[in-house]
Design brief:
By secondary structure, the chain is an alpha+beta fold. The chain folds into three domains: 2-64; 84-131, no CATH class; 134-267, Mannose-Binding Protein A, Chain A. Helices cover 22% and strands 16% of the residues. The chain contains five helices and nine strands; from the N terminus they run H-H-E-E-H-E-E-E-H-H-E-E-E-E. Strands 3-4-5-9 form a four-stranded antiparallel sheet, with no helix packed on it. Helix 1 (2-29) packs across helix 2 (53-64). The N and C termini lie far apart (61 Å). The model is unreliable at 1-38 and 75-88 (pLDDT under 50).
Length: 268
């Protein structure tokens, strides 16, 4: 029993000393830290623009030294007050228009708040916004600031003749195996860690608000099929492709005597 009492006394003395020290610091912190004003973000109770020890001192000042009370943070008041969880995000598709069937007109563009065809992609435009998402690095590469991936800006000139040739033999259309080898051996823009993108990565740069080609103009693209590194599990003799003419995804023969498609390498 004596030991428990002694431990309790030590803990209380320690807490009391810490609180006392913090109370001494409060008046020294000044209005710029401890008492900076209303909160400006989630957890930033003193309104200093950051979350640090000054916020803890602010709370203790309120509890023990009659300091100003923290104000409630309303998420509806500002987007930065309650930020979304950290982590990766899906990119927006780029689609901003909405469509519906109108008698005697057929399928036409309709208001995105239409009661007849509600909740379309063009209404929500969910995901990383398109504005400012892609950065041209000026070295033949493009950085996607949403996914963090770095892309070959132009369609791969695999035959090295300085132009993109849409030909089955001798042009820039190659088999799946050749596409894998091309990307793995590529040394470009000061990097040698290029690879053939998987199908989800490749589809992430499709712009479904554009057509023929369905990709942001920052890229150089053909309205054709591009290989991914993903195979068809149900049929391993096939690999997934993305068509940048309209954005559709499908399977194509991966045999060395099979289909030939374009290539765009990625790193990251």
């Amino acid at each position: 029993m004596k030991r428990k009492i002694l431990v309790g006394v030590v803990v209380c003395l320690s807490l009391g000393l810490n609180v006392a020290l913090l109370m001494l610091l409060v008046p020294q912190m000044g209005q710029h830290a401890a008492l900076a004003g209303p909160p400006s973000g989630n957890g930033d109770v003193n309104g200093s623009g950051g979350i640090d020890i000054a916020d803890a001192i602010y709370i203790l000042g309120y509890l023990f030294a009659q300091g100003p009370a923290p104000e409630a943070i309303e998420c509806a008041a500002c987007d930065s007050c309650c930020p979304p969880p950290s982590g990766g995000a899906l990119p927006a598709t780029g689609q901003t228009a909405c469509y519906g069937y109108v008698a005697e007109q057929g399928w036409v563009e309709v208001p995105c708040d239409s009661a007849e065809y509600p909740g379309q992609d063009g209404y929500y435009q969910a995901g990383c916004p398109s504005a400012g998402r892609l950065t041209d690095n000026g070295d033949g590469t493009v950085t996607d600031n949403c996914t963090g991936l770095v892309w070959q800006k132009d369609t791969a000139d695999v035959n090295g003749d300085g132009q993109i040739i849409y030909e089955w033999d001798g042009g820039d259309l190659i088999t799946w195996q050749a596409a894998l080898k091309y990307c793995e051996s590529l040394e470009f823009a000061g990097h040698d860690d290029w690879r053939l993108p998987n199908v989800r990565e490749l589809q992430s740069i499709v712009d479904y608000g554009r057509w023929n080609p369905s990709i942001d103009p920052v890229f150089g693209a053909e309205s054709g099929w591009y290989w991914s590194s993903s195979t068809g599990v149900g049929n391993p003799g096939y690999a997934w492709y993305v068509n940048f003419g309209g954005g559709n995804v499908g399977l194509d023969s991966a045999d060395v005597h099979g289909s030939r498609n374009f290539v765009r390498a990625v790193r990251g």
